[in-house]
Write a structure and sequence with these properties.
By secondary structure, the chain is an alpha/beta fold. Helices cover 44% and strands 13% of the residues. The protein contains 21 helices and 16 strands. Helix 8 packs across helix 9, helix 19 packs across helix 20 and helix 20 crosses helix 21. It is globular. The N and C termini lie far apart (64 Å).
Length: 483
């Protein structure tokens, strides 16, 4: 092998792979390598023959598909993409790669002609860490890549840091739970004990805290993980259908029953039956469910045959079932049958800085779903607003606000306004009712205008006021109308 080729083989450049080869012939990237997406190959050849070559560990991808395969196996810290007017690579072809490499800092190598397009310049701003005009200045590019790799490495070190209990992110991912606040530590300790049992579980907590996520975690890590999990939302099934949904029915059992149907309870055989919003189950069905839990048998509607069933029951509710028992809306005997092991998912407002870890997780998820979006992180003001908000909608509200900010945000850093949250103001000695009302009205109007693209007529219809009234409020509250 010639000397130059031998050196390239050691460094993983070109067709002489230094990394293990998988079944389809592609090689895995190491973190030190820089992926170069260059369909024509001329820029890659220039870089490989440059004096800066020894400072760069380059891996050539000759197509988008080849780059996709490489990124699916391992994330490079930094990557290059070459754009020429006739190079076969454009924004539409490139953007799907962003969802595969959230931790990778991309640098665009661009023909100066392409910069004449405003759309292309906007594409560079939202998709890339930096750009470099062709022809390549290898020494300057090496400096840019060094900065990009350092930033990507810093981000990964923050994301991979274990919490105070010493549990790595992998275990949290297995449970599907993120957070190291005292409230979540206590909850996770109880969750581990519940998983090891086969007794009924009653999960409490406010709406939006993630009770169904907890139920799936229990199933996934329990001795019944190989069996099914059958989910029943007790508040979403019409009263006329709930008997058939739970127990199933035989063909011709009633008008419209054209074939046999397996019910949700029978579908849970060998696994877990998850009864979400159990407090909404009608009283007559509570009696039927109690009988099933006691006898472990069911009969389909229209059948006299008794079928044995074996399942673990997990129930969840956002209401106080003990209070419902006192009010006569929930059977006491069913409550005691379900309330063997208790879990209460903490409200988001009680989880301290877990809100920041969750916000970052949902941001990364939203960016993967919207790879062309401009935002890449939260501003300091947004972080303060996330900490200060009371989160009445809990985790579900946080997910919605972050998703909306990613889609609608115009800047690299998400602001409190993008999240629909008022910026945190310094403490005041006193706050009058008029001050509070004006602050609320201003936040509501600003958020509605932003959601409707600053269209006054459309915003007025949404808020149920006239255009004249809306204009008066805009002027009174000094709300800018950016067009």
């Amino acid at each position: 092998m010639p000397q130059a080729h031998a050196r390239d083989a050691r460094r993983g450049i070109g067709p002489w792979p230094a990394s293990p080869t998988d079944q389809d012939g592609a090689t895995e990237l190491s973190q030190g390598e820089v992926l170069v997406l260059d369909i024509g190959g001329e820029v890659f050849a220039t870089l490989r023959g440059s004096r800066a070559d020894e400072r760069l560990l380059l891996r050539h991808a000759r197509s988008v598909e080849e780059a996709r395969r490489a990124l699916r196996r391992a994330d490079a810290l930094a990557a290059l993409a070459v754009f020429r007017p006739t190079g076969g690579l454009g924004p539409a072809e490139f953007e799907p790669l962003l969802s595969l490499s959230q931790d990778t800092e991309w640098i665009a190598l661009v023909d100066p002609v392409a910069l004449a397009s405003r759309d292309f310049r906007a594409f560079l701003l939202r998709a890339f860490h930096d750009y470099h005009t062709l022809p390549v200045d290898a020494e300057r590019l090496a400096v840019i890549l060094g900065h990009a790799r350092g930033l990507a490495s810093l981000r990964r070190s923050v994301m991979a840091q274990p919490d105070d209990l010493g549990r790595e992110a992998g275990e949290e991912a297995a449970f599907g739970i993120c957070g190291s606040s005292p409230a979540m530590r206590a909850f996770t300790q109880r969750l581990r004990k519940v998983i090891d049992s086969d007794a009924p579980v009653l999960i409490g907590g406010q709406t939006g805290t993630g009770k169904e996520l907890v139920a799936h975690a229990i199933h996934r890590h329990s001795r019944r993980a190989a069996g099914p999990i059958s989910v029943v939302n007790c508040g979403a099934i019409p009263a006329t259908l709930i008997q058939s949904e739970l127990f199933g029915h035989e063909k011709s059992a009633f008008t419209g029953a054209t074939q046999r149907k397996i019910g949700r309870i029978e579908a849970a055989n060998g696994g877990v039956l998850f009864l979400d919003e159990i407090g909404d189950l009608p009283l007559d069905m509570q009696a039927s469910l109690l009988r099933v839990l006691q006898e472990r048998t069911i009969s389909r509607v229209g059948s006299t045959q008794t079928l044995p069933v074996d399942f673990r029951v997990i129930a969840a509710t956002h209401v106080d079932l003990a209070q419902a028992v006192r009010l006569g809306t929930f059977r006491e005997d069913l409550f005691f049958r379900l309330n063997v092991l208790q879990l209460t998912v903490p409200a988001l407002r009680d989880r301290g800085d877990d809100v920041l870890a969750l916000a970052d997780r949902f941001l990364r998820r939203a960016l993967a779903q919207n790879p062309g979006s401009r935002p890449r992180g939260f501003s300091a003001r947004a972080i303060d607003a996330l900490r200060a908000h009371d989160w009445p909608g809990n985790v579900r509200e946080l997910i919605n606000r972050v998703q909306g900010a990613v889609v609608m945000g115009e800047n690299r850093l998400i602001s409190p306004e993008d999240l629909g949250l008022a910026a945190v103001a310094p403490p005041r000695e006193s706050l009058t009712l008029d001050d509070a009302r004006a602050s609320f009205e201003r936040n509501l109007l600003a958020s509605s205008l932003r959601a409707n693209g600053n269209k006054v007529s459309q915003t007025a219809r949404q808020l149920g006021v006239s255009r004249v009234t809306l204009y008066r409020l805009i002027n009174k509250l000094n709300i800018p109308l950016d067009h």
